[in-house]
Amino acid sequence: MNILDFAIIAILGLFVLAGVYKGFLHTALDILCFMLCVLFAFLMTPLLSFKVEQNESLFNTMLYYTEGSEKITDVEYRKQNISEISNAELEDIYSRSEVAFPMDKRIRANVADAAFASANIYTLGEYYNQTMVLVTLNILVFLVLFAALRIALAFLIGWINYAHPLPVLRKVELPAAIGTGLIHGVLAVFLFFMVCPIILTVLPFDVVSDLVEGSRLARFFYYSNFLLGLIPGV
Q: Which residues make Cβ contacts (< 8 Å) with residue 111, sequence separation at least 6?
């Protein structure tokens, strides 16, 4: 265990305490709101990302910080058309390019499908650039949309609870509140770890990746992150 494990345990503990303080029904509503926000952000992300993507200045800034093609160790492959590279060569390139999850999976999928051919993008370096920028952009847009709706719903729930206090289920209140608080905490940690691929891309230092890889809980919340699974790479 390392500092990330202890931080995650502390966050989960705080959510359990918050669940006990708020009560079962209030925390259950928080979980429902969380899922509604995820659905809203998932549906709206492609639309908003497309509009943001048209901003050339922003796109170039993100391209500068993600440095997608720089991940390809062999310079010649960066300029080569993806149709001219064999599957064996691609596998070797993928294995040697240090690209954060899930960007690595999205690059593989986009190259296999020639996903950017309609945009006249053909070289492997361009596929790395385009995919890593789009994944980064989609994650950021998803989080902004989620946060905007979550804040609005938090005010709504607070107002409803103030006007009509939710009842306390006395016989099952404490264990139910602890359980829902823990579930809410787990979902929140999954949300926090959505920024992990961006951090590992922008700050490609061994100490950062070692911190994540050395934490059992961090690896779980990162590599098993169902929210990251929703993020498109195109």
A: 82, 90, 124, 127
